[in-house]
Here is the input.
Amino acid sequence: NAGVMQNPRHLVRRRGQEARLRCSPMKGHSHVYWYRQLPEEGLKFMVYLQKENIIDESGMPKERFSAEFPKEGPSILRIQQVVRGDSAAYFCASSPTGTVARDYGYTFGSGTRLTVV
Amino acid sequence: ILNVEQSPQSLHVQEGDSTNFTCSFPSSNFYALHWYRWETAKSPEALFVMTLNGDEKKKGRISATLNTKEGYSYLYIKGSQPEDSATYLCAFDSGAGSYQLTFGKGTKLSVIP
Here is the structure.
């Protein structure tokens, strides 16, 4: 029973390139949440998605960042034209419903560490 | 902007010592307070979700208390073991519709054998 799978674990991109981070939720989970941890900071909410829908993207930077969770396949967090300030650890969590996550806690992946050089 | 503070930032204890740390959060618009345990290179793991003022939860040697009126929660570890070494995160849920959590920066615990 695999947990939340994120890949790659480590990603190095040059400034101006695109970064694609993948999150496969636990089996049976249709809700996905992305969080970002900048150096010396706590986890910060970015976006909440259900299959084929973005529910809340209030934590996403307005430009260069996008997220999707298609009917088939993993959720993707895409960062276009990366800059040094995008270097961070990006975590994905999943739940069967929002209520379950709220009442019992979120199941997190191990994160993708993005380094922009 | 919601402010969730954890203290201390880090601490070192000897094996067998008991320890505790604090999470402070807004006392208004409270829905729940989460505690997570996060070992290096692994994923954060949910320990407790607490909702009621005065609530106390326990899992093995780890327990937590909640005071929603004054906006704080304590996490206690009794008889610390090296395997307890991890970062302990608390996260505030205001009950808003999108289920997002506001995390503190964590308390990093190192248990010295």
Q: What stands out?
A: The helical segments of chain A are 98-104. Residues 98-104 of chain A form the longest helix (7 residues).
